[in-house]
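Trying the structure run again after the queue cleared.
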Amino acid sequence: MQESNFPQPTPEQLAGFQEGDPLVINEVVELVLPSILRWAWIQYQRLPPDDVRDIVHQVLAEICYHAARYDPRRSLFTTYVIGLLKRRLADLYATQQERDEKEEYGPDAHEKLLSLPYNETEALDEDTRLVREEFFHSVEEHLEPAEREIFQLMRKGVKSSRAFAAVLVRYGPVSDEANEVKNAKARLMRKVTFLAKTLGYAPEDLR
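Done. Tokens:
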């Protein structure tokens, strides 16, 4: 189901929503909740449905509490909700699944997901190349800006710690360059591995 096909609030409902009208807010939630839930359950089939539902409700509750932050000129309402929902599901469950991932995947398995950088894609068969590109595109949609830049550097095979540190510096202070780069890359690869499982990609499809 495409996001653009989801039921959308009317301009009048959006105006009342942004003003914090509790009756209109309830109308908007009742309108979009079923389609958002269906989307989340389809996209995150490997996660417990009850947990996915709880996260959807939490995200909608936060959006309603900060109703004035939504700008209808920038995106559809459901696109706005799903954008926040993707980050919440990925971040929360990546943290919760960290121990299981460490047991199931060794450090080498993480790196295998990125073993072929951009300039070696011609070495892949067409089906594998398409699967990898689809996977990497899906991953980047779930990443924060700093994570996305680090991910792209790793895909290109960059080894210099300075290049990764330069990314971290743009998003916050860095006191221990080597250690913070190492930790940022490790957190990112745990998240990438988790997303591969969550989005239904088998490791053998990506090699």
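The first helix runs from residue 11 to 19. Worth checking whether this holds up in the mutant runs.
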